[in-house]
Specification:
The protein has four helices and eight strands. With 176 residues, the chain is of the alpha+beta class.
Length: 176
Amino acid sequence: MPSYFFAITPPEPTLGAIEAFRARWGHPHHNVEPHITVKPPFPWDDAPGALLDLLRPALAGLRPFAARLGAPARFGNAVLYLTVDSPDMHSLHLTTINVLAGAIPTAHEGHEYTPHLTLAVTRFGISPEALDRMEAEARAELAVFPAFDVTALRGYQRFGKDDRWQPLCDLPLGSL
């Protein structure tokens, strides 16, 4: 069964800098480009167009907003990420899960949502010691990115457990 998720992808040159940083560590990170997850992965049996049609009207009513990647932080000892500074990211997340409520499962969402861009996860083969070193380097190299405008929500799809997540489309914000 295909799986999907929705996220914000930072623009270049920020995207390229994060990809290069992660590649230096040899970390596959789910076989997907760097992103800020808005709706975590979920299964969807219906046509992708039906899923996108659920979201388009709600997203069209939201205004684009600014976001900034910040300092590295962690979820426990297993996940290293960059923080995200943007109160509007929570509104986008809540709008997305509210529109999809009932159609898909929700977990770790709503008020539990922490906007972030994952740099590395130990379950994908990076040691805790390497994660410590990676965090120190991220503080020096990745903590000062310029703010960027969030103008669209990107959908991703995957058709198998080993396949790479592929961008499906960008759903514009504020297109009413």
